[in-house]
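User: quick one, fold this
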Amino acid sequence: MTAARTCVPLLLLALVVLGRNPHVPASADDPPAKAGAAALGDVAAFARKHCLACHNSKDVQGGFDVEDLLKSDSVGANPAAWHSVLERVASRDMPPKKVKVRPTEAEFRAAEDRVRDQLTAFEALAASKRPRPLRRLNRDEYNRSIQQVFGLPAVRPADNFPPDDAVDGFTNIGEGLGLSAVLVEQYLAAGQQVARLALTDGPQPPSKVRHFALGSKDYGSTFRGHDPGGAVREGKWVGDHLYVVFDAPAGTYRVRLTAAAKNLASRPGYVPNFQYRANGLLVFQADAPVKGEALAQEFALVLPTGGHLDFDFRWVNGFPDNNGLRAKGLRLPEWTDKYANGRTEVWNYLRFVYEPEKKKNPDTPYPFPYLEDAKLEVEGPLFPDGWPASRFQRENADAIARKDASAVAAWLLPRLYRRPAKPDELTEFAAFVAKSEAALAEAKPEAVPKEKRFVEALRLAVQRALVSPHFLFLVEPGPVGRKLTDHELAARLSYFLWAAPPDEELARLAAEGKLRPALAAQTKRVLADPRSRAFVDRFTTEWLGLDRLASIMPEPDLYPRFDAQGLLRQDMAAEPRALVAHLLAANGPLFDLLDADYTFLNDRLADHYHLPSLWSMFPVTRDGFAPVSGGDFRKVALPDGRRGGLVTTAAFLALTSENSRTSPVRRGVWVLEKLFNRTPPPPPPNVAGVLPDTTAGTTAAEKLKLHRDAPNCAGCHARIDPFGLALENFDAIGEWRDREPPHIDPASPVANLAATRARLKLTQYQPLPTFPIDTTFSLGGVEGQGVPALKKYLAANRDKFARGFSEKLATYALGRRTLVTDEPELARVREAALKDGFRFQALVLALVESPLFQTR
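Assistant:
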C-alpha cells in the first residue's frame, strides 16, 4: 500500500463532489450573455446623445468604443466594459466637463441607476447558475496551518509549492487558486514531511553549548567571512557579515552575540543592528543594546529540520572596509573636489583621508565604531514546550501508546478541518490505520517491525488527512447568500486576520454556538494577538505590490546610492508595513495613509530621505531633529511637508519608476489603482500607431505635455499624469531632487550618456545641465505645485479613498472579488467606519459584523 494510491483518488473525487476546479472552463449551464437583463433602453439613448461623439468605431478615444458596446442590448455581453461605464457615470467624469452640453443631474442619476440595476441582475443570475470557486489555502496559509495545528514552529513545507496566482493583487482569491497535478504531488510530499516531523522516533537529542569567537585559532570555532578583509580590519569587526558552520539537530537554539563596542564616541547615540540568517533564510533582525561598551543580543532560533547549518550574522549598519551592505555613492555636497576620492565610500575615505592622516599623526582615531572580542554562543537543541517536539505528538502521547487511532483522529481532524469531525470520518481514519498496519506487516522487501507499525501507519493516516479537501480548501458548501455556520465564521475570521486556523477559544465558542454574540469582542482579541501581524504583512504587501521591490533594477551608473545587496529594498518595503501596523494597533485613522506629519524610519531610510541619520558616514544636522539611529523602525516626526503618506514613500516611488528614470504615468496609475481602486483603461490596441513623437521634449513634463496634447491620448492622460508630475521632485529611487537632469538611458544608443553629451554638444568632462522641474498639478478643481497640491487633492477626495480601501479590504477578507451586488452593504460598512473617523479597527469590525462577511 502506498500513500499516493490512497490519497490522489480521494482528493480528486472530493473535488468533484465539492465543486469544480476554478480553472475549468465554464459549462453550458453558465448564464448566457443576455440572461437576466432587459433591454438597456434609456441608457442607450443617453450614450448616443453624450458619448458617441468621442467613443465611436472611427474615433475610439481612450480605447473605449461605446458604439460597439451598444450593439448588444444586454450588459451581459461585456460586463467589464459596463462596469467602466458605471464608474465613469457615477463619478460624473464622463462626459468631460469641457463639453458644451453635459447631462443634467437627473439624466446622470437615471443612467447610473439603470446600469447598476442591469449589472446587479446579471451578477445575481450568474451566481445562481455558476458555483462560486472553492478557495484553496495559499502557501502562506498552508504553512501557518501546519505550524499551528501540529505545534511545529518554523516548518514551511509550502515554500516548495508553485507560486500562487494573484487576482486583483491578492493571492487568497478563490478563482486564482487553481489545482494542478504538480501541486497535488507537492501536497503528497509535504504531507509525508509533516507526518515525519509530527511523529518523531527515538529519544530527545542532547543539548550542548557551541562557542565561536572572532580570531579563534580553532578553525571550527572561528568566525569566517565572505570577505574577511572588509568585515575585519586590524582584528576589529567593522561591519558586513561573518558566519559560522556547524551541524545541528532540529529544535530550538539560544543564540547569544556579545562584543565590546568601541569608538562609540565618534557618533554619540549610535545603535548597532544585526541580521541573522540560517542557510540563507532570515531568522532574526534587531538593534543590539549597548551598556557602556558591553554589547549583548540574544534570541531563539528554531530549526524545523536538522543538518548542516551555515549561520550568517550581519552588522547591517556597520562601516565595513569593503563597502559591503552599503550603497556606493554617499551624498556629501558640502565636500570640495579635494576630497573627491574620499567622499563616496567608506573604503575610499579610509584609503584617501584616514590613512594619510594616520601616517602624519599615529594618534589619529579610527573614524567609525567597531567591535572587539566578538563571541557567539549557540546552545541547543532545546525543547521549551517539552519532548517530543510536536504538540500533536505530546498531546496524543497516551493515545499513541495504547494504539488508539480513534482518539488520535478525534484530536486531529477537527483541528485540520476547522469543524467537528463526522462519525464516518473518525471511523474511516481508524480503519485506514488498521489497514495500513496490516499492509506494513507484509511490506516488501522487508516487513516493518511490529513495535513500529502503529506509528508508521499513523504517519500514513496523517499524510492522507493532509491531502483531504476539507483541509486544503476553506469549504463552505451550499448556495450563495447562505448564512455561515459558527465554525465557518470562525475560520473566515482567523484566516482573514491570522492566515491561520481558529484557535481553541474560537473553536470552543463556535462549538457552543456562542460566536456571533461575541464576534466584536473576539475580533478585537484576534487583532490584539501577535498573529495579526500576518494580516498586516500580507495585506499591505499584496495591496501595494511591495513584493515587486525585489525585482527592481535601477541603473547603477545613474543611481549609485541604491544598494544592490537588497537592504535598502528591504527597508523601503518595511516603511508602509510599519505604518499600516501602527494604524491597526493604535486604531488610527486610515486617512493618515494619504497624508501624515510622521512616518516610520530606520537609520538607512532616514539617510535616504536626507534626514539626520547615524547610518551616514558624516551625518547632516537639522535644528530640532535628533539623528535616527539603529536599524529598527520607529515613529519619526517629519520636519516638513515633503514626505508623509504612502505617495511619498520610497517604496511607491521606486516601484513606479523605470530603471533609468521616473515614470509619472506609472505613478498616476498607481494612485488610481491602489488608493482609489479604480484602474484606468488600458492603452488602445493600436497604441504604437497613435503615440506622438516626444523626442523633442527634454524633461518628463515636456514629454508628457506632448503626450497629453495628442487627441488619442488626452482623455486618459489628463486624469493620470497630474499625480505623477506632482511627484517629479522624487527621482527613480525616491530621493528628493530640486532639478532634473536630461533623460539618460544607458541601454539606448541614442539616449545613453555619450549620445546625450553629443546632442548637447558637451565635452567628456563637462557637467550635464540640469533643468527646473515642473510639478504643476491641475485636477478636479485643485491647482498648485508639487506634493502640497497633490495632498490637497487627496484630502478633498477622502471619500473616494474610503470607498477604494474598503473594497480592497473586503476583497482580501472574503477571498473573492467584490460585485455590484455587494455595493449597498459595502457602503453601510464604510459609513459605519467613517462615523468613527475611518479608523482601522472600526472598519475591520464593521466589515466582520456585516452580512457580507457572515454569509457565503
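User: anything notable?
Assistant: Residues 1-6, 8-39, 329-343, 688-693 have pLDDT under 50 and may be disordered.
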